Amino acid sequence: MSKRLVFDGEARAGILKGIDILGRAVETTYGYQGPCVMVQHRTQGLPPFFTRDGVTVANSVVLGDRLADLGARMLRDVANAVSREAGDGTTTAVVLARAIARGLLRSLAAGADPHRLREGMDAAVKLVEDDLRRRALPLQGDMVAQVAEVSMRKEGQVGRLLQQAYAEVGPDGAVTVEPGWTRADTLDIGEGFRYELGFLSPGFETDPVRRAADIEGARVLLYHGTVTDFMDLIPLLEAVNEAGQALVIACDGIDERPLQGLVMNVKRGVFRALAVKAPGHGDRRRDWLDDLATATGARVLVPERGDNLERAAPEVLGHAAKVVADADSASFIGCGGDPVAVARRVAGLGKEADAIRARKPGEGSPTGNLHDLEDLEARISALVGRIATVRVGGTTEPEIKERLQRAENARRSVRAALEEGVVPGGGVGLLQAREALGRLLLTDLDWQRGVAIVSEALEQPFRALVGNAGINPVAALARIEAAGNARFGYDASSGAFGDLVAAGVLDPVKVLRLALVQAAGIAATVLSSGAVVLNEQSGLPHLPGFSAEWAAATREDPRA
Ligand SMILES: Nc1ncnc2c1ncn2[C@@H]1O[C@H](COP(=O)(O)OP(=O)(O)OP(=O)(O)O)[C@@H](O)[C@H]1O
């Protein structure tokens, strides 16, 4: 394959072109007024889908110009990193990253020292993070619903239902969103066992929008060991399959080859199955597995005790009406264990916890006691756990999918807001952080340029949001500055300037913080792209991890 070499100015200009093209496409969806983008399915013959989600638009764009595609890929990476870490705020991150990339390239063209630029930027980002945390307002009153409604664009009942859901299960409780397949949005509160360890491979996902696996009618295999041979699983997979059920395996791990075998069989529809990490860590895992066994009515298989997976009878399996898992959590809902046994176990754990609480200070190791107590409390809440499910309705499948995506963003936004609080939205939270940068003691010119790049980027979300609402950004900025009130901004839903906190236009600090940190991360790649080596190849670049054949067979969603 022949290669093409591109240097300095030309390399950077090509990269910026890609950043601009993708940035513009993503920014179209930004804010309250942002319309949907229609994306053609990657597989011929499958219908297009509609989205307002920044990361989804970003992942759908592949540019024919290879140099520009490198730039687009940088933005895609930023969007994906924010989506992974914060779950929302991907468009904000793209807007910030695009502004930062532009600022950097301008400064480099003017001969600035890349190291000093970077140092100035890093100092500025850190200061903005601290400033956002300092200005954070804790959630109170209707703020949970309001944060959710910013993502939902004040449409439907999802915001109100998420507020109700968190009120029912508590701020650390388990809340999931699912497609409802009816017109209205609804809320279900069910009993279930949830813990914070997820599936063993993203290949188990059944819903690419939420990046989650949903399994109905599950038999539960609890294995305190590592599966090393796919054949060991076959007898139980077949028995469960014949009964029209699905096998959910919670285990220490599965070696790579058997895991691939399992995922492949699931994708091809041979078996319905899901493998998740067993609950608990280290020495405590056995106790957690016993709890889950009590909840689901299973028996834990322990190879060290001589239990054999291949010869295990289906009687060792427990039941759950539904299991939902993503990369970070697993929920067993409607478990089939004996309620009396569960109550007895909870009472036993409660007594153990009381005994630790009653210990005199200095008796036993204080940190050991604390960890034991925390673990017991976590086990009790898992056993008596309640799981809230918000079902997202709509009239057509594309509509439900599009709303579901926003509802998932809304849920993650609420979680982020519960963790670190909120600031006024509409771009104002970031805009106000410029003031903190004014307090930085400036050293040399290039360092100062680095700070200025961040400061200018902080204006961009505000400019883009009011611009998308049809307001002149320069005039809007002047009004904000004249108001001298940190909550003052433009509410696109009412079309009026005023107090954004009172109007319920709020952004989670964690989302804004992570969006800025990830956006600034683009600097490392831009600054090191002095020369670029390109593979000259005909046709569009290959989409990683995507097979058109597979997509056609499984109707894989292009957002996966
Ligand atoms: N009524 C409103 N008035 C002003 N700004 C609003 C309003 N509703 C939402 N916004 C702002 O829009 C921004 C969020 O827009 P959007 O949901 O399109 O992008 P994102 O959350 O950054 O990315 P994504 O949702 O694509 O992951 C937030 O800063 C929010 O405060």
Distance between the termini: 30 Å
Low-pLDDT stretches are: 538-560
**Outline:** globular
Q: Which fold name is given in CATH as the topology of the largest domain? A: GROEL, domain 1
Mean pLDDT: 88
- Which CATH-level-2 architecture of the largest domain? Orthogonal Bundle
Number of domains: 3
Q: Total number of helical segments?
A: 21
Pfam families: Cpn60_TCP1 (PF00118)
Protein name: 60 kDa chaperonin
GO biological process, one term: protein refolding
Subunit structure: Forms a cylinder of 14 subunits composed of two heptameric rings stacked back-to-back. Interacts with the co-chaperonin GroES.
What does this structure look like?
Pfam families: Cpn60_TCP1. With 560 residues, the chain is of the alpha+beta class. It has three domains: 3-137 and 421-554, GroEL-like equatorial domain (GROEL, domain 1), CATH 1.10.560; 142-185 and 393-420, 2-Layer Sandwich (GROEL, domain 2); 190-387, GroEL, CATH 3.50.7. It is built from 21 helices and 16 strands. It has helices at 8-27, 54-60, 66-85, 90-109, 114-135, 143-152, 158-169, 234-242, 256-267, 285-296, 339-358, 366-383, 397-420, 428-431, 434-437, 445-468, 473-483, 500-503, 509-520, 522-527, 548-554, and strands spanning 3-7, 37-39, 49-51, 174-179, 186-195, 213-227, 246-254, 273-277, 318-325, 330-335, 386-392, 422-424, 488-491, 496-499, 506-508, 531-535. Helix 3 crosses helix 4, helix 5 (114-135) crosses helix 16 and helix 5 packs antiparallel against helix 19. The two termini are 30 Å apart. Adenosine-5'-triphosphate is lined by residues 29-32, 34, 53-54, 88-92, 150-151, 409, 425-427, 465, 490-493, 505, 507.
